[in-house]
Amino acid sequence: MAEAEEALRTLARNVRAARNRAGLSLDELGRRAKVSKGALVGLERARGNPNFATLVRLADTLGVSVSALLEGRAAERVRVVSADAVMPLWTGEQGSEARLMLTTSGPAPTEVWRWQLRPGDEYPSHPHQAGVVETVSVTAGRMTLVVDGDEYAVGAGQTATFDGDASHAYRGTGTETCHLIMTVHLPPGPAPAS
After folding, report:
1. Beta bridge partners of 143
2. In whole angstroms, how far apart are CA 80 and each of 47, 86, 182, 184?
3. 3-state DSSP call for residue 172?
4. Contact 31, 39 (CB under 8 A)
5. Maximum Cα–Cα distance across the chain
6. 90, 92, 151, 149: which is closest to 121 by C-alpha?
């Protein structure tokens, strides 16, 4: 319980700091990210339990990575992250899961995700901010990548990339679990003002 409370405090501190850096009020952040002001107030006070979709919308709006909202300060020059040390940020009805392993530092960070998609499970994603590029590399099994309603079969040993500002989804296909590594390349700097 103490670990979850500390994670929520870290999230609260990081969201507030990113919002202040972007020069956004709670009202404006809520409007842009499609999150209620009450939920944002609770989040910045380390209360509540935001879901994965909310975290992605906040990160996109603030021009930061999801892990920048979740992680404490980096203490080491080299980080080695084990999959079992990272909690899934999404789980599907069939037992699929997505784990955000780490985010690189620098002006244009890259998120590195480890996914397991079981046959029949699907994760629909809302469009990200302009400039986000996603890449999926399937290491075992098969998946269907759906971008703007068009379907693309991606199997073991194949890699696909696309602009993340389109609606997209990941679906497990075939008879075995699909294992993939996804990278999300973020544009530099905060999201442009609307």
Report:
1. 154, 172
2. 30, 12, 17, 19
3. strand
4. no
5. 49
6. 92
Quick one: pLDDT at residue 190? 52
**Model confidence over 12-43: pLDDT tens digits?**
888 888 888 888 888 888 888 888 888 888 88
pLDDT at 191: 46
How far is it, in rounded angstroms, from Cα 188 to Cα 102? 17
CB 164 within 8 A of CB 145: no
Q: Note the pLDDT of residue 170.
A: 97
Q: Is 158 helix (H, G, I), strand (E, B) or coil?
A: coil
Which segments of the chain have a pLDDT < 70? 1-4, 72-77, 189-194
Could you tell me if 12 and 19 are in contact, meaning their C-beta atoms sit under 8 angstroms apart? no
User: CA angle 30-35-38, nearest 5°?
Assistant: 80
Token code pair at residue 16: 């507030």
